[in-house]
Design a protein that fits this description.
By secondary structure, the chain is an alpha/beta fold. It has one domain (5-98, 106-211): 3-Layer(aba) Sandwich (Rossmann fold). The protein is built from six helices and 13 strands. A seven-stranded mixed sheet has the order 2-1-3-4-13-12-11, sandwiched between helices. It is globular.
Length: 212
């Protein structure tokens, strides 16, 4: 079995080393890079994200990431977003003003509707039936650290269209929010799989499995 070659996008986001180690433990050969040649040749790309939405978008643009992500997805090449790496896949955010995202999915990142923010700690998720990403960990808890999230379903308004709608996993903190999305080559989690113990490790193995 050949280890899949995964690039973790090195654009200035903090705490990427833990993601690299978790992916290596899950069976990947990992490179931390923002070089176009590395990003485009990798079997899979991970887009981590820590901090404010606008700052992450600025950093992504600085290394040309929007174009590289678009091109990978156009070719059906896997991309995984983590935390703010999920949020930037949506159209916009209201965090500290109005900011444009990558627009891969419909929806706006908003402040969580909860009495205590940030949402920090372990929460149960509710994946859709038949989820490949959550196979074997459907009933497990995952580790979240965030004050903003997406409160609407990215599949909303797509029913009956020519494209298969995204499959959404939900969690709750005050109200329901998007915990993960599976959409063909593009997958993303609001939680941190690399900080989610064995459940997170199994989820990363599930994501990597088609590449092995």
């Amino acid at each position: 079995m050949t280890a899949p070659h995964v690039v973790v996008l090195d654009y200035g986001s903090g705490n990427v080393r833990s993601a690299c180690r978790a992916l290596e433990r899950a069976g990947a050969e990992v490179l931390l890079s923002a070089r176009e040649a590395d990003v485009m040749s990798a079997d899979a790309l991970v887009v981590p994200g820590v901090g404010a939405f606008a700052a992450v978008m600025d950093q992504l643009r600085r290394v040309g990431a929007p174009s590289m992500i678009d091109r990978r997805l156009a070719g059906g090449r896997p991309v995984l977003g983590i935390c703010v790496g999920l949020q930037v896949m949506f159209e916009a955010s209201t965090e500290k003003g109005e900011h444009e995202g990558l627009g891969q999915w419909h929806g706006t990142v908003e402040r969580l509707e909860a009495p205590v923010v940030p949402h920090m700690g372990w929460s149960q998720v509710t994946p859709p039936a038949g989820s490949r990403l959550f196979r074997g960990v459907e009933d497990q808890r995952f580790y979240f650290v965030h004050s903003y999230g997406v409160l609407t379903d990215p599949a909303q308004g797509m029913a009956g269209g020519p494209m298969t709608p995204p499959r959404t996993t939900w969690a709750e903190h005050g109200s329901r929010f998007v915990a993960a999305v599976e959409d063909g080559a593009l997958t993303a989690t609001q939680f941190h799989p690399e900080k989610s113990g064995e459940a997170g490790a199994q989820l990363l193995r599930n994501w990597l499995e088609p590449l092995t």
